[in-house]
């Protein structure tokens, strides 16, 4: 059999609304050509993010009913704890309301003014939280990670050479920890190899520094290791996950990705002293240590999600369905970051809209084109997101992030048709200009207008 089917059947459905082109035109204008300002009900296929947008299983919903809402020592916490401990091997497990809360607490404990935190690529909230603690966030992904056409199997790897150079340049005293993001979201959802994780660990050992994973998409990363790295073909994904975590001293996790839930996060430690400090901050700002920022029912849903996410039929379907979209776009000549990543396809908008310079926001022009033509919501990762204060981002990307277990193959076929039709008429996409923008994180609320419309 060649067809890889969705390994689930549908029990509950949620209607999505077809709109006319004229309606979408009106919505887009009202939203100031910013898709963050569009109401979700006006979107047909929502590929804005894979975070918190997945569908839960019947067992997860059953867990929601089972949730124990006791303030301290809830049964749901212990179910959550046991599952996380078994999956990751960590002793100290702190629940938080989402990934960035874990980041904020971790950096408040470890980072001080003038310190430098290396990562393959920081996600934007991770970078912002390092900076919030007075540190500088430095990205050290391998050179292949910057080349959209490179077929390197682990384009998310950190350059060990660049990491050593950084230790040399700033000195170990100013580097409080090393982080590694699996998979590397800001670098195109690309995986990191076990060999690279081991090599980063060795550098940390040499300099006696803690090593943390930003492990939002740990299961997708493990599945890529199984498929692509020598020696892992016959290992179970659960074993690979456990090995990945075994090399680190802790992890921040947004459960909104591979936790298969709509809200939740984790902060994990091996060291009891650092865990103790973090737990005090957790109690101060998130909640008591057996619920963090969550309800008991959320802990049940995460425990079950962590069970389901390492099932290999699920991961095969997940990785293949993202690749299905990517492969068809590549076959039709659409420029994307290759090979397809784990949770999203990233279109190279600078090449797609070669008639629009960065100052005309080529990525946002494509985002608006996809919404106008087909009601699809994507997100710009380029000059609008990162180009404030005169900065020029390295790439102009549009991310099509695939929510987990939400869309079927025919939805994805529709997305492929839509992208190809917009590609055929790409010369009609119009540059944009900013009319209004806030001081920081402008992509969320800026208002734009089409130039020459
Ligand atoms: N780290 C990575 C690699 C992420 O992708 C995200 C979130 C976070 C940390 C923060 O987690 O949202 O639970 O606070 N990424 C989402 C995205 C928002 O769309 O890629 P959070």
Describe the structure.
- The termini are far apart.
- This protein is of the alpha/beta class.
- The protein folds into 2 domains: 170 residues, Alpha-Beta Complex (Aspartate Aminotransferase, domain 1), CATH 3.90.1150; 249 residues, Type I PLP-dependent aspartate aminotransferase-like (Major domain) (Aspartate Aminotransferase, domain 2).
- The mean pLDDT is 96.
- It has a 5-stranded mixed β-sheet, sandwiched between helices. A 3-stranded antiparallel β-sheet has the order 9-12-11.
- The radius of gyration is 22 Å and the shape is globular.
- The protein is built from 16 helices and 14 strands.
- Bound molecules: ligand F0G.
- Ligand F0G binds next to helix 4 and helix 5.
- The site of ligand F0G has 15 residues, from helix 4 and helix 5.
List the helices and strands and how they pair.
Elements: H1 21-30, E1 45-46, H2 58-66, H3 75-88, E2 92-96, H4 99-110, E3 116-119, H5 124-132, E4 136-139, H6 160-170, E5 178-181, H7 194-207, E6 211-214, H8 218-228, H9 237-246, E7 250-254, E8 265-269, H10 272-285, H11 296-308, H12 312-331, E9 344-348, H13 349-352, H14 362-374, E10 376-377, E11 379-381, H15 383-386, E12 397-401, H16 409-424, E13 432-436, E14 447-450
Parallel strand pairs: 1-10, 3-4, 5-6, 6-7
Antiparallel strand pairs: 2-8, 7-8, 9-12, 11-12, 13-14
Helix pairs in contact: 1-14, 2-11, 3-11, 4-5, 4-10, 6-7, 8-9, 8-12, 12-16, 14-16
Bound molecules: ligand F0G.
């Amino acid at each position: 059999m060649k067809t890889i089917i969705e390994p689930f059947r549908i029990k509950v459905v949620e209607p999505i609304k077809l709109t006319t082109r004229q309606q979408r035109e009106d919505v887009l204008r009202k939203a100031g050509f910013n898709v963050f300002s569009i109401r979700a009900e006006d979107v047909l296929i929502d590929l804005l993010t894979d975070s918190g947008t997945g569908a839960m299983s019947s067992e997860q919903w059953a867990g929601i009913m089972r949730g124990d809402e006791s303030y301290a020592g809830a049964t749901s916490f212990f179910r959550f704890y046991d599952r996380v401990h078994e999956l990751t091997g960590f002793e100290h497990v702190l629940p938080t309301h989402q990934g960035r809360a874990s980041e904020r607490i971790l950096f408040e404990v470890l980072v001080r003014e003038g310190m430098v935190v290396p990562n393959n690529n920081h996600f934007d909230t991770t970078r912002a939280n390092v900076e919030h603690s007075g540190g500088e966030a430095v990205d050290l992904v391998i050179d292949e990670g910057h080349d959209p056409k490179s077929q390197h199997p682990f384009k998310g790897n950190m350059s060990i050479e660049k990491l050593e150079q950084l230790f040399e340049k700033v000195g170990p005293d100013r580097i409080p920890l090393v982080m590694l993001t699996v998979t590397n979201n800001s670098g195109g959802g690309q995986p990191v190899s076990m060999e690279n994780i081991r090599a980063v660990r060795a550098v940390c050992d040499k300099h006696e520094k803690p090593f943390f994973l930003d492990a939002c998409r740990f299961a997708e990363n493990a599945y890529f290791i199984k498929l692509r790295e020598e020696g892992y073909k016959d290992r179970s994904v659960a074993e690979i996950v456990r090995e990945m975590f075994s090399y680190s001293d802790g992890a921040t996790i947004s459960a909104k990705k591979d936790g298969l839930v709509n809200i939740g996060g984790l902060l994990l430690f091996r060291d009891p002293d650092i865990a103790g400090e973090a737990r005090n901050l957790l109690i101060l700002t998130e909640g008591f240590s057996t619920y963090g920022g969550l309800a008991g029912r959320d802990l049940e849903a995460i425990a079950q999600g962590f069970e389901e996410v390492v099932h290999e039929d699920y991961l095969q379907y997940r990785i293949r369905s993202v690749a299905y979209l990517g492969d068809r776009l590549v076959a039709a000549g659409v420029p994307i970051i290759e090979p397809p990543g784990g949770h999203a396809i990233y279109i190279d908008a600078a090449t797609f809209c070669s008639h629009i310079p960065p100052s005309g926001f080529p990525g946002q022009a494509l985002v608006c084109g996809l919404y106008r033509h087909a009601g699809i919501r994507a997100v710009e990762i380029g000059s609008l997101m990162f180009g404030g204060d005169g900065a020029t981002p390295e790439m102009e990307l549009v991310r099509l992030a695939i929510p987990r277990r939400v869309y079927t193959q025919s939805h994805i076929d529709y997305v492929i048709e839509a992208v190809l039709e917009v590609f055929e008429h790409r010369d009609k996409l119009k540059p944009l200009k900013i009319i209004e923008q806030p001081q920081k994180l402008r992509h969320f609320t800026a208002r734009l207008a089409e130039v020459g419309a």
